[in-house]
Amino acid sequence: xxxxxxxxxxxxxxxxxxxxxxxxxxxxxxxxxxxxxxxxxxxxxxxxxxxxxxxxxxxxxxxxxxxxxxxxxxxxxxxxxxxxxxxxxxxxxxxxxxxxxxxxxxxxxxxxxxxxxxxxxxxxxxxxxxxxxxxxxxxxxxxxxxxxxxxxxxxxxxxxxxxxxxxxxxxxxxxxxxxxxxxxxxxxxxxxxxxxxxxxxxxxxxxxxxxxxxxxxxxxxxxxxxxxxxxxxxxxxxxxxxxxxxxxxxxxxxxxxxxxxxxxxxxxxxxxxxxxxxxxxxxxxxxxxxxxxxxxxxxxxxxxxxxxxxxxxxxxxxxxxxxxxxxxxxxxxxxxxxxxxxxxxxxxxxxxxxxxxxxxxxxxxxxxxxxxxxxxxxxxxxxxxxxxxxxxxxxxxxxxxxxxxxxxxxxxxxxxxxxxxxxxxxxxxxxxxxxxxxxxxxxxxxxxxxxxxxxxxxx
Amino acid sequence: xxxxxxxxxxxxxxxxxxxxxxxxxxxxxxxxxxxxxxxxxxxxxxxxxxxxxxxxxxxxxxxxxxxxxxxxxxxxxxxxxxxxxxxxxxxxxxxxxxxxxxxxxxxxxxxxxxxxxxxxxxxxxxxxxxxxxxxxxxxxxxxxxxxxxxxxxxxxxxxxxxxxxxxxxxxxxxxxxxxxxxxxxxxxxxxxxxxxxxxxxxxxxxxxxxxxxxxxxxxxxxxx
Lengths: 459, 224
Ligand SMILES: Nc1ncnc2c1ncn2[C@@H]1O[C@H](COP(=O)(O)OP(=O)(O)O)[C@@H](O)[C@H]1O
Ligand SMILES: [Mg+2]
Known about the structure:
Largest sheet of chain A: 10 strands, mixed
CATH topology of chain B: Rossmann fold
Strand order of the largest sheet of chain B: 6-7-8-3-9-10
Largest sheet of chain B: 6 strands, mixed
Structural class of chain B: alpha/beta
Number of helices of chain A: 13
Oligomer: heterodimer
Helix content of chain A: 40-55%
Helix content of chain B: 25-40%
Bound molecules: adenosine-5'-diphosphate, magnesium ion
CATH architecture of chain B: 3-Layer(aba) Sandwich
CATH class of chain B: Alpha Beta
Order of helices and strands of chain B: EEEHEEHEHHHHEHEHEE
Radius of gyration of chain A: 35 Å
Largest interface: A-B, 25 and 35 residues
Shape of chain A: elongated
Distance between the termini of chain B: 16 Å
Radius of gyration of chain B: 17 Å
Order of helices and strands of chain A: HHEEEHEHHEEEHEEEHEHEHHHHH
Number of strands of chain A: 12
């Protein structure tokens, strides 16, 4: 028998009380583990979201959003201003246009529906790209008939000329090519990627040809951007579209990648000053920030939980050992009187506290790890739902690309999975040991102050 | 001379002022002698024992045990002194409740520095010497009678061959018959082991049979 075995035996001296203490400790430690896991998982997610969205800046001409609105596209000069701005690593330039039925032999895959008709009724009387091919004019009906006839609105095919076709991906990464090959966005060939729906409608496959702007295009590949609107489109090299639409150098959107997420804010403000009121500059970082902030609040909540549970557990051990020391004051005096050193008595009590903590810790760690998955999940889904609701209402400003990005972030945010990493586990064990030490320090001090002469006093 | 006390004074400072528990006490006890201390409650008997046992430090004066002044020992050396040179026997036995009789004696052996492999045999031998049967040796104190508990505590006091055994009213909690047996046990041991024993007692019969008797009154020795 030695100090350690005596300590362990003392821990089990009154089974009911020890059991109660162990259960209380197990609950606290279980909570600590679950909160640590939630925190680590959420933090991993935050880093992931930040690093995937943090470095892009979108520049669009003032007044133009995704091919709508009015104003002038960005000029070649402005593009070189952007490219030459410090910290900008790379840029993707995009020009969008819409093909009416007289510009192409393709049939749009989208039905106009009531929304589409309303959109186009303003242009109905016009005679530009939106009009139907005129039926051959009959004798006698010539002249007035053309202007009198109100053309029926028709759906259009959206066309994107871009230096990087992957920028059309709605998931923020790589565009899915379902068949055929990618095109080189930096070239000026008459090849194109065709959206899945548009390809089906027109029975196109890689190698097929179609006409647009009076030129014959070859289908290089079919893409699936993940939504019906995008899949009714064509993607071709930027230069090709610029040449065909006689807008050399013009661009309707630039996505610039900044070298580090720390430089995004300063780059945005530099670009704003340089481009003046000709362009709108927005960053995904600002968009991601609101999604990340909900995760950050979960992380903060979890940290608070960890601290709270640690304090509670330390208090339990502290009160317990203090109570035990008071109860065994005489016994401590006797041990000292018969030659036990302070170190031995304190060692015995610390062993006792550690035994209780370890037993509580084993139970707590087990249950904490088992429960951490569902706790993390419920924390995250509650928060993400709240956040999604508030985000949806405020939407409308940012461009399509950012909207897609923000949606992707939002989806991403919900998919936090709780993983128990070794460092989290060891962190929990560390905290448990800390609890035992804090919880034993005060009793140890009390023990050192017990005077052995007290045992001779008999009142 | 095994134990010499010179001009020993102990003053406690309390809220109500100073209490002179011991005042200029001097006496000496020879090796192997059985001395008793008598006196009214509050006369300073326990205080004197706590000074002799290095449980507390005197205000002034010397206590020499085998030519070492224990009043001047450091706290660490006081503990070592208690574990090796002193054996305590208390009125309330003061055994550790969750240890068996055997383990209680082994605990003292541990503190006295006995090698761990020898402790069990030595403890059993000591308990047999004070008259405890092997099956009683395995019992916790709560399952032993007062007399048996006091025997265990005497075995514990003897464990490390102390120079002095200090007993504070060792028979105070026992009926007179058991008390007499315990007293006889102490008496025989002081003879066979040649151990000095200083016992506080209220029982004048017992005091009369010891080698010497000191009477304390208001912290002073009035009869030696
Ligand atoms: N730790 C202490 N603090 C204050 N006064 C004490 C203390 N110990 C003993 N005394 C006082 O010293 C006197 C002697 O006490 P004690 O030695 O216990 O007497 P006895 O054992 O003879 O009954 C008493 O008046 C007691 O109240
Ligand atoms: Mg007394």
